[in-house]
Amino acid sequence: MSTLHPRLGQTAARFIQREHLLLIDGQWVAPRAGGRFEVEDPATGLLIAQVAEGQAVDIDLAVAAARRAFESGEWSRCKPADRTRLLLRLADLIEANGDELAQLEVMDNGKPLAFARRGIAGTAEMVRYMAGWATKLTGEAVPLSIPGQWHAYTVREAVGVVGQIIPWNFPLSMAIWKLAPALAAGCTVVLKPAEQTPLNALRLGELILEAGFPPGVVNIITGYGADAGAALAAHPGVDKVAFTGSTTTGKRIVQSALGNLKKVTLELGGKSPVFIFPDADLSAAIPGAANAIFFNSGQVCSAGSRLYVHRKIYERVVADIAAYGDRLQLGHGMEAGNDLGPLISKVQMERVQRYIDSGRESGATLASAPRQLSEQGYFVPPTVLADTDARMNVVQEEIFGPVLCAMPFDDDDLSAIAGLANDTEYGLFAGIWTQDIGKAHRLAARIRAGSVSVNAHMVNDPALPFGGFKQSGWGRERGREALELYTELKSVAINLGQA
Ligand code: NAP
Ligand code: MG
């Protein structure tokens, strides 16, 4: 009997059931050691696919292919407009295959189809945005003051072969956020998707070949982090590693990168605060703050996981956010009407449950209504923990589940409020809900985080840089900054001789 959901389209079902190999040098090849690992549907816990287990030896082959492709110059030194054209073709293919990609995302990750569909449309836009930058990566002429006559200029060159390691929370978007700027800059890539969600990276590999990218420009190695991932991060033939995932693994990546001092960018965890002031439009702030934590079942690096509400409105706002969460319907992502899917795995589900238990044991109160969930799948209901405080580990550590820690604030001193925001090792995102725009700007200026949203949550636009202060990471994704981090800056000075 098929373990696939009956609503799954035939194209997606056929893809899932196909043999899945590694993409090296433009060819689909079996892993050298011949290993396989299994992929499950997190909404049922049933196994749906087998995928090649790439290991260090396969990483070697992929890096060698990426190196040959880079050195040949066919991609790294081709006309920038040719890179734009190919990336635009890829964006069109993503869009044309959007229904299938969205269904694969649901089966792999568990999220509801409507959200997956929106995410796929967003990835096509990200590719288009980055495609446009290929022709706009300019240097500048630099006037020199030293004696003599000079013409000096800077130029941006592709950094080289890039290793990219991504997580499972937004499988296709994470792949595209990494690939698109690297390719626009002229790099060649070895991508390792998360072991839980390899399917869409593999389907993307097919679309990349269909678009006509030269062999070796994009190589995709599915496998385990501790093996394939670690080999990629440590590889002496890799010029840069770009990673998204946990802060713990991020620190390991930095250590692995020491050998050849490859460049490193990291997009890591968060424990992002959301502030609701008494003058906020609560009809927007309540669903906004609820979605900031419950969207994608809280498996979002920028999730608004710490909620600070002014004491004047604390009781009401916390009760309303908990009630909002209670109304969200959990279930299989392929079934219409479900707002939330499962967590990604049994490990994650148990980890999140342990956090909920530990919060309650340390004195937090549960504002959410208890729920009976189906036995199948890795579901955790939206959970609001009230009366938490800064010393609790639920308030300090990234939970990565639909768990909100609510706390009142009664100080009107913005420095003290910013102190609450900054009382964490992370610095990824912060949300502010108030009608007083002056206050919003003053508070935004004091918060140590890479992104701040005012009267909105998680503003996702390809042009808006995204990334972390403190232990939330190094570098930025999206925007021109993402692209420049895939380049090296060269300065050239020419002695023009005597007049
Ligand atoms: P993770 O370990 O950081 O995994 C992210 C990626 O890194 C995966 O592709 C993983 O491969 C790979 N990896 C793991 N160990 C590696 C190593 N030593 N060298 C190179 N690559 C390695 O995250 P996780 O284990 O899936 O989740 C654990 C926690 O991380 C979550 O509970 C959450 O708190 C946090 N997390 C944060 C984000 C984010 O966007 N900030 C995303 C995901 C998870 P495998 O798939 O084989 O492990
Ligand atoms: Mg892991």
Count of helical stretches:
16
CATH evolutionary superfamily of the largest domain: Aldehyde Dehydrogenase, Chain A, domain 1
User: Domains counted in the coordinates: how many?
Assistant: 2
* CATH topology group of the largest domain: Aldehyde Dehydrogenase, Chain A, domain 1
Report the biggest beta sheet as strand number plus sense, adding barrel if it closes.
7 strands, mixed
Shape: globular
Enumerate the distinct ligands: NADP nicotinamide-adenine-dinucleotide phosphate, magnesium ion
Broad CATH class of the largest domain:
Alpha Beta
Beta-strand portion reads 15-25%
CATH architecture label name of the largest domain: 3-Layer(aba) Sandwich
Into which percent range does the helicity of residues fall?
25-40%
Q: Which class best fits the helix and strand makeup?
A: alpha/beta
Low-confidence stretches: none
The number of strands is 19
Please state how the strands of the largest beta sheet are arranged side by side: 13-14-15-12-11-16-17
Average pLDDT confidence is 97
**Radius of gyration from CA coordinates:** 24 Å
Termini, distance in Å? 84 Å
Notes on the protein architecture:
The protein has 499 residues and is α/β, with parallel strands linked by helices. The chain folds into 2 domains: 10-268 and 475-488, Aldehyde Dehydrogenase, Chain A, domain 1 (3-Layer(aba) Sandwich), CATH 3.40.605.10; 273-462, Aldehyde Dehydrogenase, Chain A, domain 2, CATH 3.40.309. Helices cover 39% and strands 19% of the residues. It contains 16 helices and 19 strands. It has helices at 10-17, 56-72, 80-96, 98-109, 113-133, 171-185, 199-211, 225-234, 247-257, 282-294, 314-327, 346-361, 393-396, 414-421, 437-446, 479-484; strands spanning 22-24, 27-29, 36-41, 46-52, 150-158, 161-165, 188-192, 218-220, 240-244, 263-267, 272-276, 304-310, 365-366, 383-386, 403-409, 429-433, 451-454, 473-474, 487-495. A 7-stranded mixed sheet has the order 13-14-15-12-11-16-17, sandwiched between helices. A hairpin with a 4-residue loop joins β3 and β4 (46-52). α1 (10-17) packs across α4 (98-109) and α2 packs parallel to α8 (225-234). The protein is globular and about 75 Å long. The N and C termini lie far apart (84 Å). The model has no long low-confidence stretch (mean pLDDT 97). The protein binds NADP nicotinamide-adenine-dinucleotide phosphate and magnesium ion. The site of NADP nicotinamide-adenine-dinucleotide phosphate (NAP) has 26 residues, from α8 and α9.
